[in-house]
């Protein structure tokens, strides 16, 4: 089965036991949102999504071999 590497940043790491990233098996065509759901990450917490260093949405389909990076909302001021 194809795999993608998912990197979660800041507070999102709590959903994967504090690790910075993990390899996830996917079905071809599975979306970023579906992968997050399978990891227990609420979609509303994923504010910035990159697939292979390019901005993407939760509806972006994956095929295997991609690097997915997910960031929460960034605060500051």
Description:
- The structure is a single chain.
- This protein is mainly beta.
- 10% of the residues lie in helices and 29% in strands.
- It contains one helix and five strands, in the order ββαβββ.
- It is globular, with a radius of gyration of 12 Å.
- The model has no long low-confidence stretch (mean pLDDT 95).
What structural keywords apply?
Ubiquitin-like (UB roll); 5-stranded mixed β-sheet; globular
What is the domain tally?
1
Please name the fourth-level CATH homologous superfamily. Answer: Beta-grasp domain
Mean pLDDT: 95
Query: Residue ranges: pLDDT <50 for 5 or more in a row?
Result: none
Adjacency order of strands in the biggest sheet: 2-1-5-3-4
Which structural class is indicated by helix and strand composition? mainly beta
CATH C-level class = Alpha Beta
**Rg for CA atoms:** 12 Å
User: How helix-rich are the residues, as a percent range?
Assistant: 10-25%
């Amino acid at each position: 089965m194809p795999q993608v590497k998912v990197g979660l940043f800041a507070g999102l790491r709590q959903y994967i036991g504090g690790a910075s990233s993990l390899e996830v098996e996917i079905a071809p065509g599975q979306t970023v949102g579906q992968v997050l759901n399978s990891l227990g990450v609420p979609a509303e917490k994923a504010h910035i999504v990159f697939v292979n260093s390019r901005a993407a949405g939760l509806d972006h389909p994956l095929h295997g071999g991609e690097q997915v990076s997910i960031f929460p909302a960034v605060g500051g001021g």
